[in-house]
Amino acid sequence: MKKLLVILLSIFLMVGIIGLEKRGLAAEKYPVKPITFISPVEAGGGADVQARPLVENLSKILGVPVVVINKPGAGSSIANRAVYEAKPDGYTIGNGTASIVANKLMGLLPFHYRDFTILGAFLDAVPVIVAAIKTQRPFKSMDEVVKFARANPGEVSMASGAKGQIWWIAANDFLNVAGIKVKIIPQEGAGAFSIIQVAGGHTDLGCLGIAEGKPQIDAGNARILATFGKRRPFAYPDCPTLEELGFKVKISSLNVVMGPPNMPKDVVDILVKAVEKAAKDPDYRKFLEERNNTVSLYLTPEESTRQYDEQRIVFTEVLGAAGLLKQK
């Protein structure tokens, strides 16, 4: 009888050990179900257009569907909050832009980029200035814009992103550096809304990402005048940089993949490697260079955080001058 009990106990122990091993293997198999990727802008917005091919790469690398969910509005704070408050299991991640730097400074959110789990950067987006064709003032160069604006303060209109957000900050940074007064008209969304205003002749200018502006530029409804980038756009080699024209601006929007705080290290390691591989994919880099005025790059989580630290200094200056700075 004792021998039988010993045998049964041994069997139960073996079954338990096997069960634990299986559970351990299951944990190592992350991911085992679809992942949600939250986009902070409307479908068709620059950050959305530029992130979707990366998301496709992540899906292939991780072996599960990665589904984009758009949560635009409130200067990206809706999407930022959704990522921050998600269960930190690796099944909800999102696209962080420079808005996660600005939102806490303006008091829109109680947390900023250092409170998220940064998984790596995949591009650095820079805005461009475009001019309307149908307006009464169809500017053909930045020189024309600056001369007219200096002679007629406040008469030129410029569409930008939501007040206090990246393209709005970029527009104000340029105006401060150029020493001109232009009426900025913030839009509820990102650049997709601004280019509609420019293409329709409702504003003279627009400050937005080239991803949103390219279709209307190519259709002849808008004219690209200058880029905030350090190099000319791949698609528009005749478009000068603002630095070439004598205006030293420092605004860009680093795009990162990020998750909520306190994610498990093993899950973070898997996602960091996947983001790096997806961002360095040659076809993805070609996509960005051909279609967008972006610098295709991969930055580690640590490098990404340092760049946001640098941008925070510039954002603080611009927001402070506009009376929007709530937290230092």
Give keywords:
D-Maltodextrin-Binding Protein, domain 2; single chain; 11 strands; six-stranded mixed sheet; 328 residues; five-stranded mixed sheet
Description:
By secondary structure, this protein is α/β, with parallel strands linked by helices. It has 3 domains: 1-26; 35-124 and 254-321, D-Maltodextrin-Binding Protein, domain 2 (3-Layer(aba) Sandwich); 127-227, Periplasmic binding protein-like II (D-Maltodextrin-Binding Protein, domain 2, 3-Layer(aba) Sandwich), CATH 3.40.190.10. It has helices spanning 2-28, 46-62, 77-84, 99-105, 142-151, 166-178, 191-199, 210-218, 265-279, 282-291, 301-321, and strands at 35-39, 66-70, 92-96, 117-125, 127-132, 157-160, 183-186, 205-209, 222-227, 253-259, 294-299. The longest helix is centred in the first third of the chain and has 27 residues, at 2-28. The model is unreliable at 20-27 (pLDDT under 50).
Total discrete domains: 3
Can you name the CATH architecture of the largest domain? Answer: 3-Layer(aba) Sandwich
- Using the coordinates above, name the CATH class of the largest domain: Alpha Beta
CATH topology category name of the largest domain:
D-Maltodextrin-Binding Protein, domain 2
